[in-house]
Design goal:
This protein has 324 residues and is α+β, with helices and mostly antiparallel strands. The chain has two domains: 173 residues, no CATH class; 132 residues, no CATH class. It is built from ten helices and eight strands. It has a four-stranded antiparallel beta sheet, covered by helices on one side. A four-stranded antiparallel beta sheet has the order 5-6-7-8, with helices on both faces.
Length: 324
């Protein structure tokens, strides 16, 4: 999920924590649990610091080890150790609430298309269940409603957010059911062999579709109960020598370590080859905003490379800059 939603969920968990009698004992433990839930809801995304090392490092590591199985225990322990300097007791309660915040952060991230490497170190596989958008207005709005009720209502925040999270669990379960139903419907409607992937959008009733076949990849949308194909890529350039050699570039390697939906187009240029790798999941209005590019000379030696989110116009300028 996005940073704002994770923050809202951290504060919401503090509201839920009012069901814990320990929180009501004194102000000190109350503040400790507030810090535990808000920090715990954010700390797996500390890998954003990899941006300082460049896009390649960020893409390779974001939602990687910071969202892994060992960190489910290590993050709450680190948070509790830091807060222990300000506490004299009730460490277990602080650890449990920070654990719940970290767990929910990592678990809810599995439901969007970006996914996480939550099974590290046992598997480097990206897990993405494609159920909810990376920003889901419904989840965010029900938290805002909860905060409003907390501010104006005499009802305990613990009861308010117990209801909020029951609603959220029901909502995510419903979306999971809809996704499974929609996936079966798409296969039946299209009726072609291949691997189908149905992806969420910010709108409940609109979905994206990716159909990967032996010779091509098709991208489309589901709107108003109909499938509209919006783009297509040939898979022939996967075997092009320039595409194969481009994988040796760190940005391309990082890109492909993150996505199994990467497909290249190789362009012959005066200096050699330009290889553009597209993540077809993010196809939008005939463009691919998330991509990686490698420039190679005629002997397939790397000239320069890039990975990131960029518009087509910006990319053309970027390529010219890389050549200069």
């Amino acid at each position: 999920m996005d940073t704002g939603t994770h923050l809202a969920m951290g504060i919401g968990l503090y509201g839920l924590a009012h069901l814990d009698p320990t929180l009501l004992q004194d102000t000190q433990i109350s503040y400790a649990i507030l810090f535990a839930t808000t920090i715990g809801s954010q700390i797996p995304d500390c890998d954003t610091l990899y941006r300082l090392k460049g896009n390649s490092a960020y893409i390779r590591n974001h939602r990687g080890w910071t969202h892994s199985l060992p960190m489910l225990l290590l993050w709450p322990t680190l948070i509790t150790v830091v807060l222990s300097f300000f506490l004299t007791e009730n460490y277990l309660h602080v650890w449990l609430w920070s654990f719940l915040a970290v767990f929910i952060h990592i678990f809810i991230d599995l439901f969007n298309a970006y996914g996480t490497q939550a099974l590290k170190p046992f598997s480097n596989r990206w897990i993405s269940w494609n159920v909810i958008n990376i920003f889901d207005p419904f989840i965010f709005v029900i938290h805002l409603i909860g905060f409003g009720l907390w501010f104006i209502s005499p009802i305990s925040p613990g009861l308010i957010f117990a209801a909020i999270y029951l609603i959220m669990i029901t909502y995510v379960s419903w979306r999971t059911w809809v996704h499974a139903k929609k996936s079966k419907w798409v296969k039946k409607q299209v009726g072609e062999p291949g691997k189908y992937t149905v992806l969420p959008t910010i709108r409940w009733n609109d979905w994206k579709v990716v159909l990967r076949q032996q010779n091509r990849v098709r991208m489309g949308e589901i709107r108003q109960g109909q499938i509209k194909w919006t783009g297509e890529l040939s898979t022939k350039d996967l075997q092009h020598p320039a595409a194969i050699h481009s994988k040796e570039a760190e940005p391309i390697s990082s890109f492909l370590s993150f996505t199994s939906f990467g497909y290249p187009i190789v362009y012959s240029r005066s200096y050699g080859y330009e290889v553009r790798w597209f993540d077809v999941r993010y196809h939008h209005k005939k463009n691919f905003p998330f991509l990686a590019v490698a420039l190679l000379d005629h002997q397939l030696n790397l000239i320069d490379s890039f990975v990131g989110w960029i518009s087509e116009e910006q990319l053309d300028k970027k390529v010219q800059h890389m050549l200069s």
